[in-house]
Amino acid sequence: MLMDLIAAERRALADMLGKLDDAQWRAPSLCAGWSVAHVAAHLTMPFRISEDEFVRAMQRAGGQFTVMSDEIAQRDSRLPPAELVAALADNVHTPWSPPGGGLAGALSHDVIHGLDIARPLDIEYPLPGDALTTVLDLVTGTEHAGPDGSNPFGFRMAGLRLSATDLDWSAGSGELVAAPARDLLLLATGRRLP
User: Fold this and answer.
1) Strands 170-172, 160-164: parallel, antiparallel or unpaired by DSSP?
2) Residue extents of the structural domains in the chain
3) 16-48 pLDDT, tens digit each
């Protein structure tokens, strides 16, 4: 089931990216300091670089994934948009997943970055409810929480109950934060809305 959701998400991403004009490719995304082209380069990185290149890039970055990812996104954001779209479209069924994240992590990666692109461009971006709830469960769960209870994005659920107004989903206990599922996901992943 997860691989089906991932494939559908990658097809939707490739479709959205394939319709963007040059100005939209250069527009800021919700990822701080990254344009849409940077996010597209990041999304397609696992399909475009070899394992050896990944290891060398991690070594150059001192083992810091965020630094390595930014360096590759900066470099590869200059690739032709059609090449980035093709890398995504040609790999809708590739079973890549982030280290430690499994297939749910791969789905989260694609869904979150899809919103990083669509929201600031004001593009209607369809997301199936089961994909959203899977990702919300992952980012609000305790499995990847740090010692202070925050998730990898720095968001803390302590004292909050998140409740989707458009889906049957909620998590946590405490002060109610009710909003559409997409907005809750952006909140839980530390995105600042334009």
Assistant:
1) antiparallel
2) 1-102+113-126, 127-194
3) 999 999 999 999 999 999 999 999 999 999 999
